[in-house]
């Protein structure tokens, strides 16, 4: 599903829960493992306080596999970056910008209420709920 400095994210089938999940496999390097353990603590705090599970990505569990920290998440849709790319970087209709903005600010406010600061906000780290892409209408529709 994706790759970065820390490792990679894989789409997997959870046989016990009988659902698709995303597993972040963190490279077996001491500083990455330490950062992953901090991330797990933060994700557990977010999940504990987000009863509806709608403000932030939900951690399911984590495990250590051959010295790699593996964090199991609910599987969500594409990142905002992938959505933009798929739509050839077309401008969004104002209503869609408002909706993205509203949800993003709500999530950031939720984290701030828990005395947390997100230090890596970017389109690659903002996930859409659905994996089904919605085509952005052409600008001609708004003239």
From TrEMBL:
Molecular function, one GO term: ATP binding
Domain Protein kinase stretches: 1-143
InterPro entries on file: CLK_kinases (IPR051175), Kinase-like_dom_sf (IPR011009), Prot_kinase_dom (IPR000719), Ser/Thr_kinase_AS (IPR008271)
Bilayer-crossing regions: none
GO cellular component: nucleus
Coiled-coil intervals, chain numbering: none
Keyword Translocase: no
Keywords recorded for this protein, A-Z: ATP-binding, Kinase, Nucleotide-binding, Serine/threonine-protein kinase, Transferase
Pfam families, A to Z: Pkinase (PF00069)
Protein name: Protein kinase domain-containing protein
